[in-house]
Design brief:
By secondary structure, this protein is α/β, with parallel strands linked by helices. The protein has 2 domains: 12-168, NAD(P)-binding Rossmann-like Domain (Rossmann fold); 204-293, N-(1-d-carboxylethyl)-l-norvaline Dehydrogenase, domain 2 (Orthogonal Bundle). The protein is 50% helix and 13% strand. The protein has helices at 20-31, 58-64, 75-83, 104-116, 146-151, 153-156, 171-200, 205-232, 242-258, 264-281, 290-293, and strands at residues 12-16, 35-39, 52-54, 67-70, 95-98, 120-127, 139-144, 162-165. An 8-stranded mixed beta sheet has the order 3-2-1-4-5-6-7-8, with helices on both faces. Helix 1 (20-31) links the parallel strand 1 (12-16) and strand 2. Helix 3 runs parallel beside helix 4 and helix 9 runs antiparallel to helix 10. The model has no long low-confidence stretch (mean pLDDT 94).
Length: 297
């Protein structure tokens, strides 16, 4: 594993990619007293940034700092950026943190390229929108070179203080990103279906939002419990058997039909629960639906 060299330049950082996220990151670091160098493939996005140095090429940006953050449209662009370097030894003893979204396989390939050039690679995921960056509540999930992560931990806290590093394999971060995004989208679709149903019945959406806020912490504990049950592989939990939830899911399907609301979401929920029971897992914990979602897991 490549280990970044200790130096006195830990308050130098380069930001490559000046979309909404990149511009906000650059200004955050500049305001925090870092010596910031920025680069963007197309010019004109640095006009509103202050206290930053503008590099005319990606190479110059990478050379300017021991730590570079890349956040561009896709990992194909990151590959093109690295592949276009006149000399990959530019990356030697440098740390590259890539916040670009993509697949685990893409992270594996990028990690290989940077590591072979003598650099340290970390892939990260910022769990926030641009306007939230800098708040203590912002979470950052990362994986890759752990020595480099430890060296630049303080720099990452400029973005947010909830840091979770998942180990030395860079692709793990993107696998976790897809997993948590799946949960987020599922929860959000359910939220909006519920809001639509509430509005159809003349309920005040402010009350709906308030009640969701009241019950969410308890459900977070329930979710953690069920994931723990799945992790241990012991689904014999009589408190929340799958069979208990099937009539509830049926009522949801019927209620949506009566309210003339698209039933795709409720049908999927009922179908998964029903198939789990049909396979003989009705008396097991609700987490037993995992046996239907991925029979080989």
């Amino acid at each position: 594993m490549n280990v970044p060299m200790a130096n006195q330049n830990n308050r130098k950082i380069s930001i490559l990619g000046l979309g909404q996220m990149g511009r906000k990151l650059a200004q955050l670091y500049a305001d925090a007293g870092y010596e910031v160098t920025v680069w963007n493939r197309t010019p004109g996005k640095t006009n509103k940034l202050s206290k930053v140095q503008v590099a005319d090429t990606a190479e110059h940006a990478l050379l300017a700092s021991p730590l570079s953050v890349v956040i561009i449209a896709n990992n194909a662009g990151v590959n093109e950026l690295i592949g276009g370097l006149s000399d990959r030894q530019i990356l030697k003893d440098k740390t590259l943190i890539n916040f670009t979204t993509g697949s685990p396989a893409e992270a594996d390939a990028l990690e290989k390229s940077v590591t072979e050039a003598g650099g340290a690679y970390i892939h990260g995921s910022i769990q926030a929108s641009p306007d939230q960056l800098g708040a203590e509540s912002v979470a950052i999930v990362s994986s890759g070179n752990t020595t480099a992560f430890d060296q630049y931990r303080e720099a990452l806290t400029v973005i947010g203080t909830k840091l979770r590093h998942l180990g030395d394999k860079a692709s793990v971060c993107l696998a976790m990103d897809i997993a948590t995004t799946t949960w987020m989208y599922g929860a959000f679709v359910g939220l909006i279906y519920g809001a639509t149903f509430a509005r159809q019945h003349g309920l005040d959406l402010k009350d709906y939002a308030a009640i969701i806020g009241d019950i969410a912490p308890d459900y977070t504990d329930f979710f953690k419990l069920e994931v723990g049950i799945m992790d241990r592989g012991n689904f014999q939990d009589a408190q929340n058997p799958v069979s208990l939830h099937i009539p509830i899911a049926k009522r949801m399907v019927e209620a949506f039909k009566e309210a003339n609301i698209q039933q795709d979401f409720s049908n999927i929920v009922l179908d998964i629960f029903s198939k789990t029971e049909q396979k003989g897992h009705g008396a097991e914990s609700l987490a037993a639906i995992s046996k239907i979602i991925a029979p080989q897991s």
